[in-house]
Amino acid sequence: MPACRKHHSRTTAVVTTLAASVVLTTLPASATSGAGDPYYPDDGNSGYDVTQYDVHVNYDPAHPRHLEGDTTAEAVATQDLAQFHLDLEGFEVTSVTVDGVPAASVSREGAHELVVTPARPLAKNARFAVRVRYSGEPVGEGWHTLADGGANVSGEPHSATAWYPADDHPSDKATFRLTATVPTGWTVVGNGRPGATTTDRGATTFRWYEDRPMATYLSTIAIDKFTVRTSALSDGTPVINAYSPGATIDTENEALLPEVIDFLASKFGPYPFSSAGAIVITNDDGSGPFSLETQSRPTYHWGFFDTSMVHENAHQWFGNNVSFSDWRDGCLAECFAQYAVQLWYEKDGDDLDQNFYRSMLEESAADPDFWKTKLYDPGQGRELDNALYSKGSMMLHALRRMVGDDAFFGTLKRWQRDHRYGNASWPQFEALAEKVSGKDLTGFFAAWVHGTTAPEKPYLFPGSLGALDPAN
Asked: How many other CB atoms are there within 10 angstroms of residue 112's CB atom?
């Protein structure tokens, strides 16, 4: 079964406007809010590409409704810019500078648009840094306050703009630096590797660095009185596991993580990041997803076990290393992460034809809606539909039987290599599968991915799956 996830539409932001010293310059038509996603047209922004976020926050769990932030986004203009947008929900914005110079004007539009007019227009290909200082109550859907006043950020398709200004769309990936100050006795965990920790006058500052490009919804911060346990993968990559008070620390499952990652690497290619581990939180108010593939260090509620570990770490390849182009491409993450669980069972001798595929056929026979959701472009609000887990993992097993193991796993590894640390779309995956296998898969993908009824028998029962055809 899929991990339980929650995703919601944008909340209405608190609107704040800084005094404008000049009249706003008319924005070129192509430099607008929105990255062009058909499901979330206001997400992300055109006109620039972020290369790195440097996020500084101050948070006191004794005052959980208040966050102070100071974020710098380094970017490259992809066109001449008189204005540009950032995504940020809520907060009072106290200052904005571009390359150290105060912005000519800053305003808020809609639910989450921060519109910045720099003192001087930015030329195409210019590198620039925009720094935003802000404070107030986090109101975005990704921010979750824990029972003891701690906090955690996780959620998809949105979460980042609940705590820092961003170009909030998976197509604009960037490296990430986090500097977080909390009262001494509390711990901050983030993505990537830890940097120096310093203490001064009752406050402790934690630093984290993710040196590989990351989609904004995969960024996280977790603040609690964590128990932190460290180990290493078989190649020496550091493993950092953080447990909230009351979370289950299962040493057997914890020790299984290196085996899980080695297994996934054998199927998908080398592990793509410089650290691994888990963040295990204990908020019980029903907020947030049950688990989420936050980059390099998935977030879980209460504890984790082998199948949840397999699913979320498979995302480190499918969804994190290679991210989708827009939210129509959710199958590129969820279909593969769920099928990875079946591969894990197969490693221990499970017959996937008989014990997985047959049971899915029985489920589809009992559920008249089983086939109705398309796996690519399923529709806004259904980008993480359960069909991606059930029908999607079934589709991948049928594809494997259609093209054979060498072509199937060769395609998965080639996909990771060709699009490493970047973005790609589902149509690109179809083209690659055809290229690697040397087969015409048009009918297969039309039936399984783009269709809304049960596939015809040649596609439903390819290869060894023919033994499951009732007509045989």
From this structure: 27
pLDDT in tens, 97-154: 999 999 999 999 988 999 999 999 999 999 999 999 999 999 888 999 998 899 999 9
CB atoms within 10 A of CB 186: 21
User: 365: how many CB neighbours lie within 10 A of its CB?
Assistant: 10
Amino acid at 89: E
* The predicted structure's pLDDT at residue 2: 45
| Residue 189 and residue 297 in contact, taking contact as beta carbons nearer than 8 Å | yes
Could you report how far apart the first and last alpha carbons of the chain are, in Å? 30
Q: Contact 388/331 with Cβ under 8 angstroms?
A: yes
CB 191 within 8 A of CB 214: yes
CA 184 to chain centre: 30
| H or E stretch at 101 | strand 101-102
Task: Indicate the SS3 state at residue 33.
Answer: strand
Band (18; pLDDT cuts 50, 70, 90): very low
pTM summary value = 0.93
**Joined tokens for residue 220:** 């996280």
What CA dihedral angle connects 406, 426, 414 and 395, to 10 degrees? -20
| 185-214: pLDDT as tens digits | 999 999 999 999 999 999 999 999 999 999
Q: What SS3 string covers 149-163? A: CCEEECCCCCCHHHC
Q: What is the mean pLDDT of residues 407-412?
A: 98
What per-residue confidence (pLDDT) applies to 28? Answer: 45
Q: Residue 420, class by beta-carbon neighbours within 10 Å (0-12 exposed, 13-18 middle, 19+ buried)?
A: middle
Say how far apart CA 378 and CA 382 lie, in whole Å.
Answer: 6
Token representation of residue 1: 């079964």
What does the pLDDT look like over 142-199, one tens digit per residue?
Answer: 999 998 899 999 999 999 999 999 999 999 999 999 999 999 999 999 999 999 999 9
Q: DSSP E strands: which ranges in 46-98?
A: 48-59, 67-77, 84-87, 92-98
**Sign, CA torsion 157/233/198/60:** positive
Q: What are phi and psi of 307, to 5 degrees?
A: -70, -40
Q: Is the peptide bond before 157 cis (omega within 30 degrees of 0)?
A: yes
User: Which helix (H) or strand (E) element contains residue 177?
Assistant: strand 174-183
